[in-house]
From TrEMBL:
SUPFAM superfamilies: FAD/NAD(P)-binding domain. It comes from Deinococcus budaensis. The lineage of its organism: Bacteria, Thermotogati, Deinococcota, Deinococci, Deinococcales. Pfam families: DAO. Residues 7-321 form the FAD dependent oxidoreductase domain. It comes from the Bacteria. GO terms for molecular function: oxidoreductase activity. This is Glycine/D-amino acid oxidase-like deaminating enzyme. InterPro entries: FAD-dep_OxRdtase, FAD/NAD-bd_sf. Keywords: Oxidoreductase. One of its GO terms (cellular component) is cytoplasm. Gene3D superfamilies: D-Amino Acid Oxidase, subunit A, domain 2, FAD/NAD(P)-binding domain.
């Protein structure tokens, strides 16, 4: 691609917005086609957390990914776009010695961390946790603001339509209009995979919005408690995986009652929730099965970010944007 080449990006979540941002910075003209529906990236408060799950797994790209995400938050601020966030560190309480040993085994040498003695733990953390790991480079951010900020600062043109089909150089919209470009990158997330009739693994999830956050530092084991732009969140459930998006791709995921009970139980284990008011809920779907690169039809794709969209999405998008531009001679 030569400077001024035209890149079409389908999907304007964190994946598509990040691809647009990096491609535009490298000199490409970018058009994002985004239906603006069911974006998982609009999660009100996402953790930027390098140590995952209940065994403390760390993706080899985690540190580079989180540093890039924070660098983008800074770049957006410099461009006049404020993204609500907290670079406060993330606290991962651990219930027993066995789990602590698993976490310790998985921690790579270069990842800053500290096991907190009882006296140094956040006051809001419930008693009874055997260990607590502080990841000082982690934090939280407002997913919708971050995504919208990247898109705005990229300067990309945005077409608010659904793409029906696409190939290496064209995107056909639902209304039949055809857009042409030098390359196409598909970043449609879970809903887009559902619309395309793909059978990829998806997991619905819901978080509760709260009138305040009991802790300034996110707390995470099983569920997470974190501040948000307005109040806080307690998230998120993991519903049973499904193959594809149910129905015609328009239903908002439900919150089954047992999941609500599970979530509140996990929240109570992290902190005393008495006096905290639930103000609403937000639901989305995560798509598993990372794909980042060129497809057999010549188009490009970044999808399947699972629960790590804000940890790895911008980093992988930078790689994909770079590869697209390099493949086209830029
Ligand atoms: C409950 C929950 C909690 C989460 N918590 C965290 C967290 O704490 N930390 C973290 O890092 N990640 C978290 N995630 C995961 C994160 O939200 C996702 O990994 C990320 O948002 C995926 O981004 P994406 O750009 O691939 O897809 P999406 O954000 O879903 O964006 C896809 C966009 O493409 C559009 N689109 C799709 N198909 C088409 C089409 N054919 N034509 C036009 N437009 C189309 C959609 O309308 C949508 O706007 C969470 C997810 C959920 C559901």
């Amino acid at each position: 691609m030569t400077p001024g080449s035209h890149l079409l990006v389908v999907g304007g979540g964190v994946a598509g917005a990040s691809v647009a941002y990096f491609a535009a910075r490298a000199g490409a003209r970018v058009t994002v086609i985004d239906a603006g529906r069911h974006a998982a990236s609009h999660v009100p408060s996402a953790l930027v957390n390098p140590v995952r799950g209940q065994s403390g797994q760390v993706d080899p790209r985690a540190r580079e990914g989180l540093r890039l995400t924070w660098a983008l938050v800074d770049a957006l601020a410099e461009a006049g776009v404020g993204v609500p966030h907290g670079r406060t560190g993330v606290v991962r309480p651990v219930p027993d010695d066995r789990t602590q040993q698993k976490f310790a085994r998985n921690l790579p040498p270069g990842l800053p961390h500290r096991w907190l003695p009882a006296g140094d733990r956040p006051a809001a953390l419930a008693p009874g946790w055997t260990h607590a790991l502080l990841l000082p480079e982690g934090g939280w951010l407002d997913g919708a603001a971050f995504t919208a900020g990247l898109l705005a600062v990229s300067g990309a043109g945005v077409v608010r339509e659904r793409a029906r089909t696409w190939d290496a150089h064209t995107v056909t919209l639902e209304n039949g209009e055809r857009l042409g470009g030098d390359a196409v990158v598909w970043c449609g997330g879970a809903v887009g995979a559902g619309w395309a009739g793909e059978a990829g693994v998806q997991r619905a999830g819901t978080l509760l919005t709260l009138d305040r956050s009991p802790s300034l530092q996110p707390l995470s084991f099983g569920a997470y408690l974190a501040p948000a732009a307005a109040g806080g969140v307690l998230g998120a459930t993991f519903e049973a995986p499904t193959s594809g998006w149910p129905g015609q791709g328009e239903q908002t995921p439900t919150l089954p009652l047992p999941s609500l009970g599970w979530l509140l139980g996990k929240g109570e284990a992290l902190t005393d929730l008495s006096g905290v008011r639930v103000t609403g809920r937000w639901s989305g779907r995560r798509l598993s099965g990372l794909v980042a690169g060129r497809q057999p039809d010549g188009s490009w794709r970044l999808s399947g970010l699972g629960s790590k969209g804000f940890l790895l999405g911008p980093l992988l998008a930078r790689h994909v944007a770079g590869d697209v531009l390099a493949a086209r001679g830029m």
